[in-house]
């Protein structure tokens, strides 16, 4: 067990990336058995390469964010872009999607960009997109992203081909703070956000926007509320829910939810689940067992 937040498994399950406890967004990588922790960079956005050997991340250069790539041990760093770029996503076809910001009036606008993994071939896929990180389908043929609604605050969830053609709307109405993730087989998309309410709502739909259904009526109200991850078998979602957040596993067929952390008892917060792609028992991942009660770094909460 290591201290950190916002974990993300490498696609092959051999490593885990996360933000360490010290500094400003220190990206660290550890082997699956909990050994070999190394610091990669200070960054707010990152994504694994499909072969699990490299990481693309953002780095501030003279007040502007640019994209860099490095090996998973932190060596071989190379700059990829020179714009105001963030929110990278790496496809199985070795294309990197990202958001590029442009000045517009008193503010700015964002465009969805795609490039090769060496930084060549940069092209615009869509303009005036939302601020949420785009997501490639598992086969790299399609990309999901958000588009600003007319009010300039909310966004709609869209899916397009990798070249930006054949755009389809998935969400029925605009929402705020959307999060999205493809199912492992690429046939469905789960997404959550605020849709005219003060609580996150969670939906699952086919990639073409059909068969939309609401999975959970109330997710939570803290910063991590609504974060979720698909199970490798695609039959469940692990979801951060409640205040303070706990992790629930929601079965998609029945809608039944099982609480697997118990921070509500002691005020600790659990968020940002990341499902091990190899489904190994926790005993195989190193560290030590933690009782279901108060966790070592828990802090009492005055909330209910």
Description:
The protein has 304 residues and is an all-beta fold. The protein has no helices and 24 strands. It has strands at 5-9, 15-19, 26-31, 38-42, 46-48, 54-61, 64-71, 78-79, 85-90, 95-104, 107-116, 123-126, 135-136, 142-148, 155-161, 168-169, 176-182, 188-194, 201-206, 213-216, 228-230, 236-241, 246-251, 257-259. The strands form six sheets. It has a four-stranded antiparallel beta sheet with strand order 1-2-3-4, with no helix packed on it. A four-stranded antiparallel beta sheet has the order 5-6-7-8, with no helix packed on it. β14 and β15 (155-161) form a beta hairpin. The model is unreliable at 293-304 (pLDDT under 50).
CATH level 1 name of the domain at 1-128: Mainly Beta
Q: Give the neighbour order of strands across the main sheet.
A: 1-2-3-4
Q: Specify the oligomeric state.
A: single chain
- The CATH homologous superfamily of the domain at 1-128 is called TolB, C-terminal domain
User: What fold name stands as the CATH topology of the domain at 1-128?
Assistant: Neuraminidase
The description of the largest β-sheet is: 4 strands, antiparallel
Whole-Å distance between the termini?
A: 28 Å
Helix percentage: under 10%
- Quantity of strands, as a count: 24
Strand content: 35-45%
Would you tell me the overall average pLDDT? Answer: 85
Give the low-pLDDT segments: 293-304
CATH architect. name of the domain at 1-128: 6 Propeller
Q: How many H/I helices?
A: 0
